[in-house]
Amino acid sequence: MRSSLIAGNWKMNGNLQSVVELVEGIKAGNAGKAELAIFPPAVFLMKVGGMLAESEIALGAQNVCDQEAGAFTGEIAASMLRECGCRYALAGHSERRSLYQETDQLVAARCAMAVASGIIPILCVGETLQEREQGITEDVVARQIDAVINLSGIASLGQAIIAYEPVWAIGTGKVATPDQAQEVHAFIRGKLARLNADVAEKVQILYGGSMNPSNAAELLSQADIDGGLIGGASLKADDFLTIAQAV
Ligand code: PEP
Predict the structure, then answer these.
(1) For the chain, how are helix, strand and coil distributed in percent, rounded to 5?
(2) Which ligand 1 atom is nearest residue 230's CA?
(3) 171 alpha carbon to ligand 1 midpoint, in Å?
(4) What does the alpha-carbon distance between residue 222 and residue 182 come to, in Å, rounded to a whole number?
(5) CATH superfamily of domain region 5-245
(6) DSSP 143
(7) Residue 31's pLDDT is what?
(8) What ligand 1 atom has the least distance to the C-alpha of 163?
(9) For residue 32, what pLDDT is reported?
(10) Rounded to the nearest whole angstrom, what is the distance from the C-alpha of residue 235 to the centroid of ligand 1?
(11) Which candidate in 35, 93, 95, 127 is catalytic?
């Protein structure tokens, strides 16, 4: 039986004071039903890591460098994330892919470095609206996952999490129906099962894309949805905690 993870991606929002208040609000209201993880902006990781030291809430980074160390200005090494207390790092969020041209290969290399350094990557995959309308959702998701398998092998996904995030649903208020989401999650699990049944059974597959307190319960009740990656609704402690209680 897979456990559920509710992960909050705060993106580039907030300031030191609001971040501290949000962490305090989430800590105070956490009922401990689902595992929670929060992904603050990188400059606040050390601070938030300290605040979470005695709590059950995990810390994650919004990205991780594909290289170990050296002349990679602006990047953050997995070893540094560990020093901040991170358990997770996102890799290949659609905003990184579309706004900063991160390729499937770079995302796969980021995942590989995370796994090698003891950070659990959350590999984000998903199709654009145009790709969905062309009927190539499964091809796109398969290609994004295959980049990781080709670089690191199927076993590496046993140490990772996958987040299915249809790009057309991220930050738009348009949410995939539970059936649409379940269909893609089942496709992903089935694809992995053909290569390694244990990995397929174990890997958590999160849904992301305008999940909120009103739609979370139905999405989270689907057989292959093992939690959520939440953007906008993770910026309010009450909304984030209500989603977690829907597990
Ligand atoms: C995200 O950025 O991963 C996300 C799912 O955002 P939102 O919940 O705001 O759609």
Answers:
(1) 50, 15, 35
(2) 8
(3) 5
(4) 6
(5) Aldolase class I (3.20.20.70)
(6) H
(7) 87
(8) 3
(9) 77
(10) 11
(11) 93
Residue 170 Cα: closest atom of ligand 1: 10
Quick check: is 201 catalytic?
no
**Tens digit of pLDDT at every position of the chain (247 positions):** 799 999 999 999 999 999 999 999 999 999 878 899 999 999 999 999 999 998 999 999 999 999 999 999 999 999 999 999 999 999 999 999 999 999 999 999 999 999 999 999 999 999 999 999 999 999 999 999 999 999 999 999 999 999 999 999 998 989 999 999 999 999 999 999 999 999 999 999 999 999 999 999 999 999 999 999 999 999 999 999 999 999 9
Cα-to-centroid distance, 70 and ligand 1 (Å): 32
Is residue 176 within 8 Å of 208, Cβ to Cβ? no
pTM of the model: 0.98
**Whose C-alpha lies nearest to ligand 1, atom 8?**
231
Domain extent listing, the chain: 5-245
- Å from CA of 191 to ligand 1 middle: 25
> Of residues 127, 131, 165, 185, which has the active-site annotation?
165
Ligand 1: residues with CB < 6 A are: 9, 165, 170-171, 208-211, 229-233
Residue 123: strand pairing partners? 91, 162
Alpha carbon 167 to its chain centroid, in Å, reads 13
- Residue carrying the six token digits 């929670």: 36
Distance (Å, rounded) from C-alpha 57 to C-alpha 126? 26
Q: For this structure, is 83 an active site residue?
A: no
